[in-house]
Structure prediction request, 350 residues.
Amino acid sequence: MSAAKSLSLSSSIQICRIMRPDDANIVGNVHGGTILKMIEEAGGIISTRHCNTQSGASMLDPSPVQQDRCVAALARVERTDFLHPMFIGEVAHVSAEITYTSKHSVEVQVIVLAENILTGAKKVTNKATLWYVPFSLQNVDKIIEVPVIEYSSVEQEEEGKKRYDAQKMERLETKERNGEIINPVVSPEAYTVGFSQSSLIHLVGPSDCTLHGFVHGGVTMKLMDEVAGIVAARHCKTNIVTASVDAINFHRKIKKGCVVSVSGRMTFTSNKSMEIEVFVDADPLVEAARGKYRAVTAFFTYISLDKEGKPLSVPPLKLENEEEKKRFEEGKVRYLQNKAKRQAEKERQQ
Prediction:
């Protein structure tokens, strides 16, 4: 256990899976959505397991039992960078560890490694931080308290508290955008927002859900990545791969039987990257009186690659109105902020 040796044995987990052709695009790059789905699976297992133990319980002594059983629902995924590509035939090692708990949420940090089983070589492909909230199985609208964890130091707990406060503030700010919709454009011009925008409609079935009838966060993220990938491919007409995902915010749960509409539009392009905003709206068929609602939002960043896998220049985005110009400038700010963070991280590692 890397972050805190004092945590219980149930606070870390690793899952492994070989990458198959249906996990990748036509040139063999594993879809970003496939990796995001595996990340969420590991996070969901470890957070649900933890939230169903009393403080002080462990795999060696599971006797303390929490009366109100729960399932941990994904609330947010922090920025996820795709550091290296993963390919068909490689084995993905997904390691998850609980690093902080608040009264009603769990922070899980995940590292993904790709192993070439022919050479034994391994490389880190992804690092992600996820936040989960436990909901009672007896009353799905009730959020239960999370068992506390022990920290290796006061500093570790304080750093976790800072991360918790920051993500809580950002989630509140994101809700302000939840009224926006993506309207279809008739006969759009090439390289405009309307030309590449895309949507997908999906009926949520049993295979998409947990045993308790709610959609796996990883399933939703995979659909979002598919739509964002279509937007990127339509814009540049080349092989594209996920480069990073800004925070994914899960505002409301999606139940089995809902029809989800996943919509994506280009917001910003740099010389070699594209930012795509993605919305997920859920429309309950059985409980139609509740009406359609915004469930998830995120920004995906893609890059364009040539046949040798080297980055290509991206066609500039043509802006047609003030709203698109505003979104472009906001995307530019995010791009510059993330670029500065990557540079600072690189300097710390040197």
Notes: Residues 322-349 form the longest helix (28 residues).
